[in-house]
Design a protein that fits this description.
Chain lengths: 246, 399, 383
């Protein structure tokens, strides 16, 4: 990118530090060994994401963007460096701790929606709440509130196979936000959708960010989707190359 | 004709496809085979008990030997025939003649307590007092260890089955029953018959030891030919001074085993039926998952034009083959583990122990195999039909 | 529990597969309940034996008699509160295969020793007054469709003084059992009639039954009685009724072992079938389990959910199977006479529950561990 954008990114990082960035990634490395082969997927990544930001993570396939997202979600551990979210150093947490942490702090949206086919939309959305101590009634209220937000309050009792792709993804998003997590992480959320549904989903994500203040990090290789974010971060060969601000 | 060839080609093609995907479904296929093997093993094993029991009791006796006991007795044990009556019986028509006159044997049967080796507790074993004539009647009798007892002495000869199942009956050991001491001098076999569960002694000595005077339990007679039976029986039954029942030895012993054989068969078939039903459910389960694993291939074949028929056939054939494999294994296990397994049990009808061996007959094995085929057939039917009837579009959508 | 809808939805996933797995578990537990009843029936004599009763037989051989004159001496042994005697008649009713126990006894004494045989007063009076009368248990009456007043002819090896061997009795009463396991298969008639009419064996009885005041004194009293008759012409062997019955049960053979062996095979097979189903089910759900872990379900929770699922399957099939076994057992003896007392033994239900628990755990642990251990990242990448 241009020197202007690079220096702008440095500014935003500085701004983030002073504002108290929600997400702080410092010099993170991730190595995979496949047999005797050693693959350095991430090679010293630094990233700051302030609260309320909407970041799009872009890069060619194999650049490590999904890996980075998994690290932010606490689904994987870095081989080196630190990952701090809020006050939590998740790179130092054990499996049990991470699971607990995830239930409070992370909402994940997958490319293939990954709804449980044997549960209704309501029951799918309810899943994260089962890990809390809310009563059945309270859970019901949260679920119905969140289904209203994504615009599917009339589809609560439907099974995933009865919903279109776009509707499934909206249920998935509802599931991701029902427990009011700190971060909303999305891995190619519109990758499997037709144009119209894609727009709906992106509208929803933007609304969640602008009106509800949700911090969103979205992995995508679709420039059109990335354009909806506040900020685009480029990953290539395991390193953060540049940033662009919308 | 062309249609048939076409059809067979299709079945073959689907069949080959099935075989190729078998390794992937190894786990569930193995489960079916083991399941059916287990069912067949239990089926054959339990029924071989009845077969063994029946064989022992039917191998006893020949149709040309007649048994005379008192009327109203169920068994030799409860029967009593006086010396006088014995003489009348010995003079009846139809009896074969040997060197020393009519070939008849007077025998006394009592029960003695001997510890059963397998349980350590005492069991009722028959002790039969005989004269040398008994050996003329039982032509299959061979002494395999030691020697025969000498008349007039407190000596006993033990049947091979009894020696195997009960404690302390080796050649040279002594046994004390009541106030009498007996020495074991030999062991005999008698063609696998019931006599091998007995202990034999001299008749007179036994009569003395048990205060029987000159009473015996039964008179055995060798007929000059099996057809002489009716003459023999007629003469005795019509005699007003006698109160006897006359049977062919073969009939007597098969009657003796009725109760126990029926018991074992009833229980055996009941158990086998329950296991079979369970096996069918298990087989259906396996075949359903087998079919599910091949949805894509089946759908593709159907889309290409293969008929539903060959699909059904191929699934059923596979199911039957798996079940048959299980059946063969089960039969083999049953045969090696149980055939000729020696044991003994109590025959309530005669109140005494009978030593016998499990017998896995060819008939039983065939029944076992048929059973496994039926399980395979029924197990494969529903999944097969379902596989064929699922519309192609639906099947492809499942992917 | 709030996770129940989730667990239940998994069972409904492949309904047909779940159904057939359930059915095979059902059959396994049906066999379990039923075969335990069979095993129990073979040994029932042991269980219904009276705690305070002893049995005296001739020491030399069970088929030899004892003199009735021994009765007085036995009665006077300290610790003995009551004595009865009995003879095995061993006759044939119509057909040798209609085998049942025919006992010649002193009616008063016998009924005193077996208070669990319940006979209405009027029937008892009628029997006492009728020399050739007899009573039988309800099972026997039902089996042969006998009614009070019927004349029952029995052919026996015992010759009567008139030279015949056919004996006839009037059925004066039908007794019922105090408990479901009481033996109601006996046919009992007057010893007096028996002894007076028979040609041989006067003054002899088959065996004695004794009641003692304190069951724990049994060994001493037994020894004392046997010592009393030692070295006589009729030496005795005294044992508790339980030991006596056990002797017979053991003579039949180790039915318990055979049944146990069969049930082991059955359970092994069912383990394979159900275990296979669970493994498949978990394997199919890898992505879903990964999603649950992403949402924050801990490894321990995932493990528990799979185990509970497996336990639920085992419980449903198991309870239905045991229930069905109970129903089947109520239909009675499957052998047509050999096992007249056929009930589901107490404690078999508890045993069944334990078996269900073990089955659920055994079939579920491997899949549960697999589910617990799966790595989210790798599992999601499969999609």
């Amino acid at each position: 990118m241009s020197p202007a954008t690079i220096s702008q990114s440095q500014e935003s990082t500085a701004a983030a530090e002073t504002a108290g960035a929600l997400v702080r990634v410092r010099d993170v490395h991730k190595v995979y060994t496949r047999g005797s082969e050693r693959i350095d997927v991430l090679q010293g990544v630094n990233l700051d994401v302030p609260r309320g930001d909407f970041v799009a993570l872009m890069g060619p396939s194999g650049s490590g963007k999904t890996t980075l997202l998994n690290l932010l979600a606490g689904l994987d551990r870095p081989s080196g460096g630190t990952v701090q979210i809020g006050h939590d150093r998740i790179d130092k947490m054990g499996e049990g701790e991470l699971a607990r942490w995830r239930s409070h702090h992370v909402g994940f949206v997958f490319q293939l929606y990954n709804l449980l086919p044997t549960l209704t939309a309501e029951r799918n959305v309810e899943l994260p709440l089962l890990l809390t101590s809310l009563s059945a009634n309270e859970r019901k209220k949260h679920v119905s509130a969140v289904l209203t937000v994504v615009g599917l309050s009339d589809r609560g009792k439907h099974y995933p196979r009865q919903l279109s792709g776009g509707q499934e993804q909206r249920v998935a998003i509802a599931r991701a936000i029902v427990a009011d997590p700190t971060l909303l992480l999305c891995d190619e959320p519109t990758g499997d959708l037709d144009r119209k549904s894609e727009e709906e989903i992106l509208d929803l994500l933007q609304a969640l960010n602008r009106e509800h203040g949700k911090t969103i990090i979205m992995v995508t290789h679709n420039a059109h989707a990335a354009a909806r974010a506040r900020r685009i971060v480029y990953l290539n060969k395991g390193q953060l190359q540049s940033e662009a601000i919308q | 004709m062309q249609r048939i060839i076409n059809w067979i080609t299709q079945v073959y093609a689907v069949g080959v496809l099935n075989l190729r995907t078998l390794p992937r479904r190894f786990g569930s296929s193995a489960a079916t085979i083991v399941g059916v093997a287990g069912v067949v093993t239990v089926f054959v094993a339990v029924l071989s008990i009845g077969e063994g029991f029946r064989a022992t009791l039917q191998q006893t006796g020949s149709p040309s030997t007649a048994l005379v006991i008192r009327t109203g007795s169920d068994t030799e044990m409860l029967s009593g025939i006086t010396l006088m009556d014995s003489r009348v019986i010995q003079d009846a028509p139809g009896i074969a003649r040997g060197g020393s006159g009519p070939v008849t044997s007077r025998e006394l049967l009592v029960l003695v307590d001997v510890p059963k080796i397998s349980t350590g507790t005492e069991a009722n074993v028959p002790l039969r007092g005989v004269t040398p004539e008994a050996f003329a009647i039982r032509t299959n009798l061979h002494i395999i260890a030691g020697r025969n007892f000498e008349p007039g002495r407190n000596e006993i000869m033990v049947g091979a089955g009894a020696a195997r199942e009960f404690a302390g009956l080796q050649v040279g050991s002594t046994k004390t029953w009541g106030k009498t001491n007996w020495t074991v001098v030999g062991i005999f076999t008698d063609g696998g018959s019931v006599s091998e569960s007995e202990i034999w002694s001299d008749l007179t000595i036994l009569q003395g030891a048990y205060n029987r005077g000159t009473l015996v339990s039964s008179v055995h007679a060798r007929l000059s030919s099996p057809d002489e039976f009716d003459t023999f029986k007629g003469a005795l039954v019509s005699n007003p001074r006698l109160n006897v029942k006359v049977l062919r030895e073969t009939d007597y012993f098969s009657e003796q085993s009725i109760f126990l054989t029926k018991l074992v068969q009833n229980l055996g078939y009941l158990i086998a039926a329950m296991m079979g039903i369970g096996a069918v459910f298990g087989a259906i389960n396996t075949m359903y998952s087998a079919v599910a694993a091949r949805t894509r291939e089946i759908a593709t074949l159907r889309a290409l034009g293969f008929g539903g028929g060959p699909v059904v056939i191929s699934v059923i054939v596979e199911s039957i083959l798996l079940a048959l494999a299980g059946g063969l294994i089960g039969g083999a296990i049953a045969y090696t583990a149980f055939n000729n397994f020696h044991t003994s049990t109590m025959n309530w009808q005669s109140f005494s122990q009978v030593a016998f061996a499990f017998r896995v007959t060819p008939m039983l094995l065939i029944q076992g195999f048929l059973y496994s085929v039926v399980i395979g057939l029924v197990g494969g039917l529903f999944p097969a039909v379902r596989a064929a009837r699922t519309s192609v579009a639906a099947a492809l959508r499942e992917l | 529990m709030k996770f129940l809808p989730l667990i239940w939805s998994n069972l409904r996933r492949k309904r047909v597969r779940t159904l057939f797995t359930l059915l095979s578990i059902l059959v396994a537990f049906l066999m379990f309940g039923y075969l335990i009843a069979v095993s129990n029936a073979f040994n029932i004599g042991v269980q219904i034996a009276g705690v305070d009763r002893l049995v005296l037989t001739n020491k030399v051989s069970i088929i030899l008699p004892l003199p009735i004159s021994d009765l007085e001496r036995i009665e006077q042994v300290p610790g003995v509160t009551d004595v009865a005697h009995a003879d095995w008649f061993g006759g044939i009713y119509q057909d040798p295969k209609n085998f049942f126990a025919q006992i010649a006894a002193d009616p008063e004494r016998y009924l005193r020793l077996y208070p669990e045989f319940l006979l209405p007063e009027d029937q008892k009076k009628a029997w006492m007054a009728d020399r050739t009368g007899a009573i039988c248990g309800k099972y026997l009456a039902d089996r042969f469709h006998w009614k009070i007043g019927d004349r029952i002819p029995i052919m026996a090896a015992w010759q009567k003084k008139d030279g015949t061997t056919s004996w006839e009795f009037n059925l004066d009463g039908i007794y019922t059992g105090a408990t479901p396991t009481t033996d109601t298969t006996q046919f009992i008639f007057h010893y007096k009639y028996f002894d007076e009419s028979r040609v041989n064996g006067h003054g002899e009885v088959g065996w004695y039954i004794i009641r003692i005041a304190h069951p724990d004194q049994a060994p001493q009293i037994a020894d004392r009685i046997d010592a009393m008759f030692a070295n006589s012409d009729y030496e005795t062997k005294t044992s508790t009724e339980k030991a006596f019955m056990q002797g017979f049960a053991k003579q039949v053979g180790d039915i318990g072992a055979i049944i146990t062996a069969i049930l082991s095979v059955v359970f092994f097979i069912i383990l394979l079938v159900a275990g296979n189903t669970m493994m498949q089910s978990v394997r199919e759900r890898v992505t879903e389990l990964a999603v649950l872990k992403t949402v924050g379900f801990s490894n321990g929770l995932i493990l528990t959910l799979v185990l509970v699922e497996s336990l639920m399957l085992a419980a449903m099939g198991g309870l239905l199977g045991l229930g069905l076994a109970w129903l089947l057992i109520r239909r009675g003896d499957p052998t047509g006479g050999a096992l007249p007392i056929f009930v589901m033994p107490t404690g078999s239900l508890a045993l069944g529950m334990v078996a269900i628990l073990l089955l659920g755990l055994a079939t579920g642990s491997l899949p549960a561990l697999q589910a617990m251990r799966l790595r989210v990242v790798q599992s999601l990448r499969r999609a």
